[in-house]
């Protein structure tokens, strides 16, 4: 293992179609960093808990540039577990990339470069990780950011609606995302609840799991 202030442990870097958020459908370079300190019961990237190789920030940026795509997402695992992810995002912004950060919402986002578009999970009870939510993070979100709720059942749905209202998320962020847990609840059921309640959330599915195999990596 290499040591140094510019080292990141990277699970994979790949070029694909953005499968989630309001950026869904756009070509995007994904930098998936290793390690996560959450254990959501529906997690679909357990391989990123420990698998990875050490790369310098320069090496990561060189690889990102090789795809000739201006949209980059830093994901995981949990990217903010690695302090050097902050410098990576800053450097990518300096290079004029549009940078997205996918974070579990339990690590401090106040330290993230303000140019980064934060897509922050709020963990619902069905994940068994809702006690880990860092609620003070909400105060750092702006209209360029998004909040995502991954919903397993009706209990999660009602809980998510309460959080949205309590924190006035429609006014604070650019998009509130409601996503069904793949394989746990039919998308049509969640969509029906949203339409019945007439709430202005953005319904989303994990598009990449419908384009490719749900188990496929690097997509």
Quick gist of this model?
The chain is of the alpha/beta class and 219 residues long. It has helices spanning 57-65, 84-94, 154-166, 169-172, 187-197, 207-211; strands at 7-17, 27-33, 53-56, 71-75, 98-103, 117-121, 146-151, 175-180, 202-203. It has six helices and nine strands.
Describe this structure as you would to a colleague:
This protein has 219 residues and is an alpha/beta fold. It is 24% helix and 24% strand. The protein has a 9-stranded mixed beta sheet with strand order 3-1-2-4-5-6-7-8-9. It has helices at residues 57-65, 84-94, 154-166, 169-172, 187-197, 207-211; strands spanning 7-17, 27-33, 53-56, 71-75, 98-103, 117-121, 146-151, 175-180, 202-203. Strand 4, helix 2 (84-94) and strand 5 (98-103) form a beta-alpha-beta unit. The protein has 6 helices and 9 strands; from the N terminus they run E-E-E-H-E-H-E-E-E-H-H-E-H-E-H.
Please state the average pLDDT score: 92
**Largest sheet descriptor:** 9 strands, mixed
Structural class: alpha/beta
| Inertia-based shape | globular
Q: Termini distance?
A: 27 Å
What sequence of helices (H) and strands (E) makes up the elements?
Answer: EEEHEHEEEHHEHEH
Strand content: 15-25%
Residues in helix, %: 10-25%
Number of helices, counting only DSSP H or I runs of 4 residues or more: 6
Low-confidence stretches: none
Strand arrangement in the largest pleated sheet = 3-1-2-4-5-6-7-8-9
- Rg from alpha-carbon coordinates: 17 Å
Number of strands: 9
């Amino acid at each position: 293992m290499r040591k140094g202030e510019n080292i990141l442990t990277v699970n994979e870097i790949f070029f694909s179609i953005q499968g989630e958020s309001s950026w869904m459908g756009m070509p995007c370079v994904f930098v998936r960093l290793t390690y996560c300190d959450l254990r959501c019961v529906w997690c679909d990237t357990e391989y990123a808990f420990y698998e990875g190789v050490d790369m310098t920030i320069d090496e990561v940026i060189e690889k990102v540039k090789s795809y000739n795509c201006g949209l980059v997402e830093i994901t995981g695992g949990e990217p903010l577990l690695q302090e050097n992810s902050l410098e990576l995002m800053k450097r990518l912004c300096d290079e004029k990339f549009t940078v997205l950060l996918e974070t579990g919402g339990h690590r401090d986002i106040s330290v993230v470069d303000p140019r980064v578009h934060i897509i922050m999970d709020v963990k619902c009870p069905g994940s068994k990780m809702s006690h880990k939510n860092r609620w003070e993070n909400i105060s750092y979100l702006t209209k360029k950011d998004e909040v995502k709720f991954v919903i397993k059942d009706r209990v999660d749905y009602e809980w998510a609606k309460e959080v949205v209202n309590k924190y006035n998320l429609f006014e604070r962020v650019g998009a509130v995302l409601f996503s069904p847990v793949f394989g746990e609840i039919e998308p049509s059921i969640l969509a029906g609840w949203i339409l019945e309640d007439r709430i202005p959330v953005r319904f989303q599915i994990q598009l990449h799991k419908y384009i490719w195999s749900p188990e496929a990596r690097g997509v």
